[in-house]
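Notebook B, p. 112. Complex prediction, attempt 2.
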Amino acid sequence: MNIRKNSLGMLTISLVLATVAPATGADWGSLKGRLIVDGSVAAPAALNVNKDTEFCGQNKLLDETIEVGEGGGLANAFVFLYLKRGKSVDVHPDLASSGSEPAVVDNKGCRFEPHVLLLRTQQTLEIRNSDSVGHNTNFQTLSNPAFNETIPASGSITKMFEKQESYPSNVVCNIHPWMKSFVLVRDNPYMTISGADGSFEISNMPAGELEFVFWHESKGNLKDVALGEAGKTDRKGRAKLEIPAGGTLDLGDIKIAPTALGL
Amino acid sequence: MNHGFFIAFNRIRQSQPKARGFATPIHFCSFANKTRLLGLLTAVAFIGGCDQLDPPAFRLNMVEAVSNETSTEYQQEIADVLGGLFGTPDEPFALPSTGLDLGKLRIAAGPVWSDSAGKHLGLYRKHCVHCHGITGDGRGPTARFLNPYPRDYRQAVYKFKSTYNPAKPTDEDLHRVLIQGVPGTAMPSFSLLPSSEVEALVEYVKYLSIRGQMETELIRYVFDELGEEEEEDENGNLVMKRYPLDPETDADQREAILEILAEIVDGWNASSEAVIAPEEAEIPEDNRAPEEIAASVAAGRDLFYGPRANCVKCHGPTGLGDGQQDDQDNWNKAHKVFLETLAGETEPELVAAKSVVADSLYPVRNAIPRNLRKGVYRGGRRRIDIFWRVYAGIAGTPMPGSGPASAGAQGTLTDTEMWSIVDYVLSLPYEAPSQPQQALPENPNAVTSAG
């Protein structure tokens, strides 16, 4: 028998032999890295703004599928913890209340702001329309009920998702079909989105071997991506990584071939 | 539960001896021309590839399979599990937990014939298969030439129903579609069939839907949960080990599969609680005075062209359906996305596998908003039918809902406003085409919408 404290400070008793889950207790670690497109990327194309041109055409709208920042950093890629069906993960006490604040997706200037979003199950999502033109939000999920609703000018709707999704969900506006965004709904906080320079970090994870999904909207799973000494992502865009107790696994610069993004 | 599952597996084992080809990957008609590439099966999914003597077989959802890189072995295992859970087109099966009525399914399934008492059997093949296909994938022999294409039931998304947008249709909804047909499309009315036969067909549509949903879920389950992993063998060498889909021996898999099935079935069972019931007090009387109707039509017109309801953006400034025409419904969009991933594909094996599937797809068609001047309503012309369309939108299509998204939620428009829109929509065919333009001054944001 093994008696120890879990993250909530409560005593848990479990059979040592039955414990195959990552280490629980006080040992937490982080993962970081920077995604870099290994090659030149053409400037994003202008979108075909064919509706409400007077309003939506005010700002020159560009295709946001592939956002490459300075030094080739790949923005808007999702990195998140993979868990087998029905499995859960210990959550660091600091993160226990993450997702209690409502998140917002705004229809602003005929694009979704933000373009990519992380959401917890049970977290409130407000879908807002700051524009003076009407929009609709068509949210295509796999596990939760999908919906497609009108969001009038200056209006908003609120949503909550009960189940987690395996991948980011595609959100579109059908009145302005060039508008799209991606929202990842998970029931744990271990997920992130690469920033403008391609860097990402997930902190306070239970140390030990964990598996992560690398995903980008251009082609979905980022497969066969070399992760230095840590190996590479498999054909499903997943990689098993050893998260050090009290430390950070730094994957350094991770090079992505333009072809992996369909370029 | 588990017991039933075992029985299901044993049953399929008995009825499908290996010699009849069940255990070989080519028991789907469409797999006749098979090439093996990178463990991926490319299937030539044309119609009529079956030998006349072979009993018709369900075919695999190759768009999903190839997108998820489902290997030949897994395809076979998925087919086995589906066979165990649902049987074959000639011998349908359903676990009691699905709530499907096997008696009805047997009347609808199988070859067309009449028994000695004159009872008609094989109804689906008699009335539906040439459009909707054996598998219910909307790929019957005549499908390619129709617009809209016959429905692919496997996503379990239905357009003309009384329930909230994401909810499944009720049995009555499907019954109504069969009796009325879908006016303005190839989907005929089956009002001459006895209602017992319509009920059997409704049950069979649900069966094909649930089977199709299960298939997609299994493909995703295999992708997410199973696969090949590097492992050390007894000599310490790294070898690839494949984790088969084998619920018969793996209790965890069995539990997961039954859970997935239960979730799908729950969705269908919940439809009767998801029916949109208009607020009694707001339902317009049948015997309204002409002035009252005119006022409602005028209010509806303002909404239709205004920035709150936004109908004008898609249905156009004169209701001709010539607004936003650049979008697709879910079925066509899925194929468009598939073709796009093929265009960006660089691995030769995947290019080959995806190309074969791509070649079998029908041309992608845009979703054209309805021309509301024709007065032809695919989902029925009663006021409640139009009300449901405005309230919930049309599931699977670009058309959004304006009412609450679920019971108790906040909607964009009130019931009264939506009934006014219904009045306006029903009056639109009789309105002079110039009239909406005259409404513009009252509504500066309406058509041009520069804020």
